[in-house]
Design a protein that fits this description.
The complex is a heterodimer of chains A (663) and B (248).
Chain A: H1 15-22, H2 28-31, E1 35-39, H3 43-55, E2 58-62, E3 80-81, H4 93-103, H5 110-130, E4 155-156, H6 162-180, E5 183-186, E6 189-197, E7 200-208, E8 214-218, E9 221-224, H7 245-252, E10 257-258, E11 263-269, E12 292-296, H8 299-306, E13 320-321, H9 323-327, H10 337-349, E14 361-364, H11 366-379, H12 387-413, E15 422-431, E16 434-435, E17 448-450, H13 468-488, H14 502-521, H15 527-542, H16 548-568, H17 580-604, E18 618-619, E19 622-623, H18 627-630, E20 632-637, E21 644-649
Parallel strand pairs in A: 1-2, 1-9, 2-5, 9-17
Antiparallel strand pairs in A: 3-4, 6-7, 7-8, 10-16, 10-20, 11-15, 12-13, 12-14, 14-15, 18-19, 20-21
Helix pairs in contact in A: 3-6, 3-13, 4-5, 5-13, 11-12, 15-16, 15-17, 16-17
Chain B: E1 2-9, E2 18-25, H1 32-45, E3 68-69, E4 72-73, E5 95-99, E6 108-110, E7 113-114, H2 117-124, H3 146-156, H4 163-167, H5 174-185, H6 194-207, H7 218-222, H8 230-244
Parallel strand pairs in B: 1-5
Antiparallel strand pairs in B: 1-2, 3-4, 3-5, 6-7
Helix pairs in contact in B: 2-6, 3-5, 5-6, 5-8, 6-8
The chains are: A alpha+beta (663), B alpha+beta (248).
Bound molecules: flavin-adenine dinucleotide (FAD), iron/sulfur cluster and FE2/S2 (inorganic) cluster.
């Protein structure tokens, strides 16, 4: 298969502008005759559905949630990047482009990333016009902050809930189109299959989750904006419902899945507290601006802490190992996410973890509280302030900056982080891999597009903080409304697609049989128990660091687990009713196959890059990329026995490939 | 810790419901929903029907979780959703009563899961600013007073959970609707459609079968995001002035 990225000709900075100005368009009277299905109404899907509706297409939008507002996007905390240069600190489209390419460890497409940086500024304008209450300065202008791994302040934010505010914006734009009848909204409808006719994507099979009824929906093209697959690890910061099934169903129909092994493990999450744990909670990266990461120097102290005989405060300065500051003096606690995560793993592997399970390190604000306290006392003109006074003043400053996060931490752990050091540990957070798409965001199946976290396009092997929201909204508001025309311009004479064709009937029948097959197993183990076991295998063999032997073993064990699943899973209830266990079962079944492909991809990528760390490919303990042999995208064609890789070479014409160093 | 759970079981929207008792052993570090996971695992192992409940983010932001715990929507802890509630708030030997949100505009789907799509319908009546993609001026073209922005924000923190409706003896959605309206009406961008928005959203709210607001104030007490009833007072003022403006 020849992978055509369809990158337009011309200089990098002009590609998108020229392409947009010269691409085939669909006239308004023809748009009215064209139907588009959008699956997923998170940031990417809601923005796409709303905008396509505004343009005059007939849109049908689907979500398994009971409302678009509940999509996983709602949980994003920190912010959204844009190259506005409002702070006059030297930011530019080029700089955002460069940071994203470098942050992605040189494994993404230049042209896509440049376009992302270009449209980033329009996203902010659009969101403000919709009423998104971004943080503002006293003068009423938009405020910014800086985020991991970059040297400018380009992150726009809305307290600790940027995702919710942006999603409400997109959801309100979508609501307006629903009210106008331009978008027909199908809540609580889960896509269970993709329907192709003559090689083109023409519709989907859904299950109405309230009634259990299977439905056939036809359109001229299909857009998937169904999110990421981090939940293949079971425990992650993703919402419980996040899953890979929509994308995986497309893969089963021939779509390629790119770079499945690129996973982002976020360094600052609340550690696992027990076997019953169902999900993990992120503590925003911004905390590393003031928190210092450490573990005890000796295993004895760590053991005493784990047994509850000692607390963080009991250890003298010289008994602590501030390992990030020690190993990476230039960036210290602010090294990028992947580096910070691996360092925490090393500390835990050395048996220096500070929580019962051994999997946790300290994030300590004591020094920041003292520093802020002293400077507050000074600026308030308090002479010889007492230690208590300094603490009190310092805690106030820290509260103003991170109050909501500290409160969240206390709700979950029952510990007061002002008084004792926070405990954190890395957790699976984001998946850079996804459906392979070309410059138009079209998969290798004509008429099938993928947006947002569901595609692989812009983040290479590692995503920068505050760039996922940007990408989802760029795809939905500013890219797909144009690029969908490259496919639809040739479809204006295609009559309405019938949902009663043999292809639709066959797909519905197949789906019914798949569900009936699962229900008929009537084994002894719950879906959840399989999901947990899969997650453990993934974490152990495909987690923060990987090696060939482990990956092979992981694959084997996952295949065994899949077999056991199809023999022994127990799903209560029937197909014709509201049945959350059945919903979970189809998702876990797909995760079991994805996990296998994930491990294979990690095995074949014999280098360390971004979130993918192979123990065999290191230099002085740091990740070692291999540009000569691996500057390509791995796009996988699924096959039960023998998935096949197709390679898209990445050409870098505008940036020079360098080793990332944070020492 | 050993707990007795008294849970509302209802097969579907038309069936009659009843309470059933269950015993479960929990850990104090568990979240409330993890405790229910333990129960469901137990039920599935016995090949019984697990308890249906809604959840997704499990960190208090998506608004999916919705249950009445010991008589209170989202439980007793202030400013906390059911998913953020942890078992250390209970003690061994406790009996905990768990019911669905009850309101005539929220039909029960199964057990603890209810249908809250009427909240979406209210949004569709005007919970937006009419601006197409690509029509927006520069983000800094309209400065917004940081206080206005901040009070718009306070209203915008609503997570659409519907606890206010469940808490209200009249089943009114005034707190939710007023939060949605105030978020937009406090901002300069939202002012143009101000009167129309107020009228239309209130009309649809009534049509969806939500009750009238009689200033009981239970909504504010139970709201996990502590949305203030000041929003309702402001909405009442807007409503009157929009009627006088004759903008229907
Ligand atoms: C805790 C947390 C904090 C984050 N903070 C930030 C941040 O500060 N900045 C940042 O840039 N990024 C952040 N991210 C990442 C970012 O939030 C996500 O990558 C992004 O929101 C994904 O958006 P999406 O639209 O692609 O997918 P989602 O929001 O996941 O939406 C997926 C949609 O698809 C639907 N769907 C899925 N499968 C099906 C199916 N089979 N049938 C029907 N519907 C289906 C779902 O119902 C949903 O509507 C954070 C992520 C997490 C977990
Ligand atoms: S106002 Fe409060 S209780 Fe009502 S829906 Fe919003 S967050 Fe929930
Ligand atoms: S599960 Fe999302 S708010 Fe409770």
């Amino acid at each position: 298969m020849d992978l055509k990225s369809n990158i337009p000709e011309g200089p990098l900075a002009d590609k998108w502008k020229n392409y947009r100005g010269s691409m085939n368009l669909v006239a308004p009277n023809n748009k009215r005759r064209l139907d588009i299905i959008v699956v997923g109404t998170g940031l990417a899907g809601a923005s796409a559905a709303a905008t396509l509706g505004e343009l005059g297409y007939n849109v049908k939008a689907f979500t398994f949630h009971d409302s678009p507002r509940r999509a996983h996007s709602i949980a994003a905390q920190g912010g959204i990047n844009a190259a506005k240069n409002y702070q006059n600190d030297g930011d530019s489209v080029h700089r955002l482009f460069y940071d994203t390419i470098k942050g992605g460890d040189y494994r993404s497409r230049e042209a896509n990333v440049h376009r992302l940086a270009e449209v980033s500024t329009e996203i902010i304008d659009q969101a403000v016009a919709q009423g998104v209450p971004f943080a503002r300065e006293y003068g009423g202008l938009l405020a910014n902050r800086s985020f991991g791994g970059v040297q400018v302040s380009r992150t726009f934010y809305a307290r600790g809930q940027t995702g919710q505010q942006l999603l409400i914006g997109a959801y309100s734009a979508l609501s307006r189109q629903i009210a106008k009848g331009q978008v027909k909204m199908y809540n609580r409808h889960e896509m269970l299959d993709l329907v192709t006719i003559d090689g083109k994507a023409r519709g989907i099979i859904t299950r109405n989750l309230l009634t259990g009824k299977l439905e056939r929906h036809a359109a001229h093209c299909v857009v998937l904006a169904t999110g990421g697959y981090g939940n293949v690890f079971y425990l992650s910061t993703n919402a419980m419902g996040c899953n890979v099934s929509a994308a995986w169903r497309a893969v089963k129909k021939g779509a390629l899945f790119a770079n499945p092994c690129y996973t982002q493990i976020h360094p600052t999450c609340i550690p696992v507290s027990g076997e019953y744990q169902s999900k993990l909670t992120l503590m925003s990266e911004s905390l590393r601006n003031d928190g210092r990461v450490w573990v005890p120097k000796t295993v004895e102290d760590a053991e005493a802490i784990r047994k509850g005989e000692k607390r963080a405060e009991d250890l003298a300065e010289e008994d602590r190992d501030y390992y990030l500051e020690r190993r990476y003096p230039a960036f210290g606690n602010l090294v990028p996410r992947d580096v910070a995560s691996r360092a925490a793993k090393v500390a835990s592997d050395e048996n220096k973890g500070v929580v019962k399970t051994g999997l946790g390190v300290y994030l300590d604000f004591a020094a920041a509280i003292e520093r802020y306290g002293k400077s507050e006392a000074f600026s308030k003109g308090i002479d010889n302030p007492s230690a208590e006074k300094i603490r009190e003043l310092g805690e106030q400053v820290v509260e103003a900056k991170y109050g909501n996060l500290f409160q969240m931490y206390e709700k979950i752990t029952g510990e007061n982080p002002y008084k004792t050091a926070m405990k954190i540990y890395p957790a699976v957070h984001y998946t850079m891999g996804g459906l392979w798409v070309d410059y138009n965001l079209q998969t290798n199946i004509p008429g099938l597009f993928a947006l947002g976290e569901a595609n692989f396009s812009d983040h290479g092997a590692n995503r920068l903080g505050a760039s996922a929201l940007m990408q989802g909204l760029a795809d939905g508001y500013f890219v797909i409304p144009y690029t969908v025309g490259t496919f639809l311009a040739d479809e204006i004479r295609t009559p309405k697609i019938s949902a009663d064709s043999p292809e639709f009937m066959a797909a519905e029948k197949e789906t019914r049989e798949r569900l009936e097959g699962l229900l008929a197993i009537k084994g002894n183990q719950s879906v959840e128990s399989f999901h947990r076991r899969l997650g453990k295998l993934m974490w152990e063999y495909c987690g923060m660091s990987r090696n060939a032997e482990g990956l092979k073993k992981g694959r084997e064990l996952m295949r065994e687990l899949k077999e056991e699943f199809y023999k022994d899973v127990y799903i209560p209830g029937t197909m014709e009713e509201f049945n959350p266990e059945l919903e979970k079962a189809t998702r876990v079944a797909d995760f079991l196959e994805l996990g296998d492909l994930f491990a294979l991809d990690a095995l074949e990528r014999k280098e360390s890059c971004g979130g993918h760390f192979r123990e065999e490919y290191t230099e002085n303990g740091e990740a070692k990329r291999n540009d000569e042999d691996f500057t390509y995208v791995s796009a996988w064609e699924w096959d039960d026995d023998n998935p096949k890789v197709h390679k898209e070479q990445l050409e870098f014409e505008n940036v020079e490939l360098k080793t990332r160093s944070y020492k | 810790m050993k707990l007795t759970l008294k849970i509302w079981r209802q097969k579907n929207s038309t069936a009659n419901g009843h309470f059933e008792n269950y015993q479960v052993v929990a850990d104090e570090h568990m979240s409330f929903l993890e405790m229910l996971d333990v129960l469901n695992q137990q039920l599935i192992e016995k090949k019984q029907d697990p308890v249906a409940f809604e959840h997704d983010c499990r960190e208090g932001i998506c608004g999916a979780c919705s249950m009445v715990i010991n008589g209170r929507p989202h439980g007793q802890q202030k400013g906390t959703t059911a998913c953020q509630l942890h078992m250390r708030a209970f003690k061994s030997g406790d009996t905990i009563t768990i019911e669905p949100f009850r309101a005539s505009s929220f039909p029960v789907i199964k057990d603890l899961a209810v249908d809250r799509s009427s909240l979406d319908t209210i949004m569709q009546a005007g919970g937006y600013i009419s601006v197409n993609t690509g029509q927006a001026p520069d983000g800094n073209a309209i400065p917004v007073d940081s206080e206005d922005s901040s009070s718009a924000f306070d209203a915008a923190t609503c997570i659409g959970c519907g606890a206010c409706v469940a808490a209200c003896p009249n089943g009114s959605a005034m707190l939710y609707t007023s939060a949605k309206i105030n978020h937009l009406n406090k901002l300069p961008q939202g002012k143009v459609e101000h009167n129309k928005r107020v009228q239309n959203m209130i009309k649809v709210m009534d049509k969806e079968g939500f009750g009238k607001c009689s200033n009981v104030g239970a909504c504010e007490v139970e709201c996990p995001k502590e949305i203030s009833t000041d929003n309702i007072a402001a909405l009442n003022r807007y409503y009157l002035s929009s009627v006088f403006a004759g903008n229907d």
